[in-house]
Design a protein that fits this description.
With about 400 residues, the chain is α/β, with parallel strands linked by helices. The protein is built from 13 helices and 17 strands. Helix 3 links the parallel strand 5 and strand 6. Bound molecules: thymidine-5'-phosphate. Thymidine-5'-phosphate binds next to helix 10 and helix 12. Thymidine-5'-phosphate binds near residues 329 and 368.
């Protein structure tokens, strides 16, 4: 399997590794590079951290952390019920139960390697396997719980480095006409927006429909439908099934494959262009922040995201530019950001009258945040983003 290097994002820490002052000496860094598979066009990190290091009892990301995502999961749960009427549903990476809670307990199974989150769904009464998704687990599930009608995963399959084995396990656990529904950030959207901060340690891959069709074909599965979603800065929801099932391939699958071809995802040029755009984005963002600081204005960051870990470490943005980061997640507050060591505080503390500019670490929730922070905007506060270009979101 030959690969071509696309982009180097320098030394990066664990993206969600917010830590207390006293834990500074435990921080680890790795060289974060992405490469594209010459045959399948799967874009992946060239090196990943151990999965136990990333997904454990200290995992801090709550899938229900925004109204946008709560609504999103309620809506897809209802859609799955209406469309497939599954007797058995299994979720890979069930996090805090924001999706599975819409299904009856006797019909649903959770798989979640992070003990703190596995305890949450178990506490809600759902049978939960505290485990990584692998063939040993599948054997146990098939033996104890039987085959599944729907397997669902959101922002999880892209976390699994050995994606072929993970897809094979899905194939094996599905009933003959079972459906695999999964959604992850879209490579085409990342290229369109130069949102290179989709790349971080947990995202072992950024999927195109083109690459997924190839990878699923290897395990005798096919994509029969695709939905393009706005969440997480542009995602694709894939509907796949076993090759011998009767699902008809929708026109959206062909449209997506054609579109990806038209923007050059099957040739190397598009990847080189993306790398070039990323380098320009860094120069522009640093320039913008530098000018604002030169005018003696205060900048903070809004949303202590994994994405902002990539941006801050790649661009070398530290406390010289950003006084602190605000985030609603209690487990992140009172800690320092990975690599650049910027303090994290609650929005109640941080969004005070002294703030002139807020960089949107959570740019994917721009609408929700700008609505919530209307008072900041009304008193002249400005939001900064680097997506799709470094600039001020509400200049007037
Ligand atoms: P994500 O972009 O990876 O989903 O992470 C979003 C982060 O931003 C998460 O830590 C919660 C935080 N956040 C806020 O602090 N305030 C908000 O209004 C929203 C929507 C998110």
């Amino acid at each position: 399997m030959s690969k071509t290097l696309v982009l180097k994002l320098g030394k990066q820490p664990k993206a969600n590794g917010f830590f207390k002052d006293s834990e500074l000496n435990k921080e680890v860094f790795f060289d974060m590079n992405v490469a594209v598979d010459d045959n399948t066009k799967l874009l992946s990190l060239t090196k990943t951290l151990d999965k136990e290091m990333l997904f454990n009892d200290e995992y801090v990301y709550h899938s229900s952390g925004s109204k946008t995502m709560q609504f999103h999961f309620a809506s897809i749960a209802n859609q799955i019920k209406r469309q497939f009427s599954p007797k058995k549903v299994l979720e890979i990476g069930s996090n805090d139960g924001v999706f599975i809670k819409h299904f009856k307990k006797k019909h649903a199974l959770c798989v979640e390697p992070c003990g703190n989150f596995a305890d949450m769904t178990a506490g809600m009464g759902y049978k939960t396997y505290e485990a990584f998704w692998d063939d040993k687990l599948i054997e146990k599930i098939i033996r104890d719980d039987g085959l599944q009608d729907v397997v669902y995963a959101a922002n999880c399959m892209c976390h699994i480095p050995e994606i072929g084995k993970a897809f094979e396990a899905v194939h094996d656990v599905l009933t003959a006409d079972g459906v695999f529904v999964f959604e992850d950030p879209s490579l085409a959207e990342m290229f369109n927006r130069t949102s290179y901060d989709q790349i971080y340690d947990e995202h072992a891959h950024i999927f195109s429909v083109t690459a997924l069709a190839e990878e699923l074909m290897k395990v005798n599965m096919f994509i029969f439908h695709v939905e393009n979603l706005s969440v997480h800065g542009g995602s694709n929801r894939i509907y796949a099934a076993r090759i011998d099932s009767d699902y008809k391939v929708s026109k959206e699958v062909l449209n997506n494959l054609d579109y990806e071809k038209s923007i050059g995802l099957s040739t190397f040029g598009a990847y080189e262009q993306f790398a070039d755009n990323v380098r320009q984005s860094r120069t522009r963002l640093i320039g913008l922040l530098y000018n604002i600081k030169n005018n003696h204005k205060k900048i903070i960051s809004y949303g202590a995201t994994s994405k902002s870990t990539t941006v801050f470490n790649y661009c070398g943005i530290d406390r010289t530019y950003i006084d602190y980061i605000t985030d609603i997640t209690p487990d992140k507050q009172g800690k320092l950001s990975p690599g650049m060591h910027i303090p994290v505080v609650s929005p109640e503390v941080g969004m005070n009258n002294s703030v002139d500019f807020a960089y949107l670490g959570a740019w994917n929730f721009a609408n929700e945040i700008m609505e919530k922070e209307s008072a900041f905007i009304e008193r002249g506060g400005k939001f900064i983003t680097h997506v799709p270009f470094a600039g001020i979101l509400n200049p007037c």
